[in-house]
Fold each of these.
Amino acid sequence: MTDIPIIDLSGLRSSDLDERRAVAAVLGAACRQVGFFYVCNHGIADDVAKGIFAAAYTLFAQPDAVKETLSIKRSPHNRGYVGMAGERLDAKASPDQKEAFNIGFELPADDPEVLAGKPFRGINLWPDIPGWRDQVLAYYDACMTLQLTIHRGFALDLGIAEDFFADKMDRPIATLRLLHYPAGEAQEGAEIGAGQHTDYGNVTILATDGVAGLQVQRRDGVWLDAPHIDGTFVCNIGDCLMRWTNDVYVSTPHRVLRPKAERYSVAFFADANPDAVVETLPTCLAPGEAPRYPAITCADYLRQRLTATYDHLKTGS
């Protein structure tokens, strides 16, 4: 059915270092060989996981005029609503046939970094739907805990301190993205739901609703379906983690075909703190090998990638 491994994360929460290292080795192999993996025993409660889909259904059912009052164009911090065909993940393809809503790390309006106008340090745009904010933040917080667990596995596999990423991911740029794809023709050459791309950050945690569409490009160029598996999330590493590991971990192109039925998914993009410096880990350099990428802050790198994705950022409109 799939070449994407299913990894039981329960061992990463063990008090036994050998058990944690065993899971980390499996995780690292997936990052080197496929770049994608499913996780089970992830620690996110069923009611929280179901709640985020209920929130997505409610939001996207709102009139377009209501959703546009929350437009991402109103936020310089990558938060808010993206309308149908509002982004193009594959610069060579037509605009993506989807709508989306982005929620960032929740900060109060009087937070010093918000007041200072620091990059990706803005307030979220919340719809006027009773209980919606609390429902969404419960899922965001659960994903924060999960991504830190996964990062401990990465660190163990890479031979660095197990808590290396902890202070680089505690106030992250991390974006929770609700996605809605209308039904269309799910076939080669048809309009695309989401164009071929790699993700920008460290790791993505994706929840799907059971409607097919996600495909992953294997290292030999063959496209694999990534089917929904109950009780799991599908995860993939992104380009920032590839930079940190000097291509020891390689991010993998993927896409979403136009689904035959209406499709919803929820992605949590775990990017690092804005001022975290992404630079090659010493353990990922062979003797005499030079880093393949210059050091860059996470905020600067993400800004470059987002500008290439959104027309309104290219034009300043």
Amino acid sequence: MRNPHGSPVWYELMTADPDAAKAFYDDVIDWTIEARPQGDMDYRMIGTAGGQMVGGVMRLTEAMLQGGAGPGWFFYIGVDDVDATVKAVETAGGGVIMPPWTIAGVGRMAMVRDPQGIAFYVMRGEPDETSTAFERAGFGKCNWNELATPDQEGAHAFYAAVFGWTFPDRMPMGEMGDYVFVAVGDTTIGATMTAPDPGPPPGWQFYFRAPDIEEAAETVKARGGTVHHGPVEVPGGDRIIVASDPEGVMFGVVGPGL
């Protein structure tokens, strides 16, 4: 059965060096990224220790780099109709980066941006299968999607209009404002916050679950990445780190509490 409209369904790392990305993330998250691409495009699937798919790693080509693309994590939001969703994105004040295209056997997709310029994909998969790439407590899965935005209320209005997201609760964070939770139906998929200034550029950040957060933090440092925050406990008892990989790409890791 297909995921409800507005659900995160796939995660993708764009990188100039997929081999280095494999060496790093396989060790940090306990993934198995394909050692070699399938087909002409250098695209490698990301598998959990349990053999389920989380997303893919795409090599940035020279053309992409010359066109302004850079390394980063992105997600695909599942929708009922890609073309109708792209129109809704534009109506709600967003824009189109790559207009809809179809890959046989995979589905139809487009790359868009919200009114604050933050990019993501929309997709309708060709098979009517349920994606488990996002799972609140699944090991190797994305457990949390976090948006840091310069216009939190504007972002809420946009994502509600396009995807039907709701914002059922909030947690005050003092001078940083509120941490506002995001839901698709009855499932909380993440939260939004006001992007700190100074701080990393606004954008989506994804937290993937590893078996041991302390080990993940040490592995990040040992493999050439940087731990910017944590390990620290978060509400609910889990512990997290915020880190960057050797290319400087930001990501999060979540693990069980002590």
